[in-house]
Fold this protein.
Amino acid sequence: EKPDLAIELVQTGDRQAEAEAYAIRTAKAAYYVDSTGHPIDTAVADLDELLEGLDIRSPAFLAWMDAQAGPSDAPIQRRCMQLIGETNAATEVERLWAVRRDLVTNYLSVEKELPAGSFLVRDRLDTDT
């Protein structure tokens, strides 16, 4: 008889960096809407390309940021985080991590037909080495 095999997949990453990237992307989207007067169609395939073209260090973006949150000498990434809100960014990152966990879990259980209990998908803990 073969012993049962259990798989544990650990999701790792830098949540703070993801939160910062979310804050920057959200600030860029708000700037785009304010500066062009055009709403962003989130179904557009080239949305990432559109936002990638916006420079958060440009004088226009910095002036917009000053108008939104007041002048500051803080790094622009920090200012974006303050504008969007750390709680909002953390909530979005948690949502993204949960979606990733669910996608991997569904893939293993549906596509690979692994029985429940034979695998665990979890986030990295501070106690992990």
Notes: Residues 62 and 104 are 39 Å apart (CA to CA). Residues 7-123 form one domain. The first strand starts at residue 7 and ends at 11.
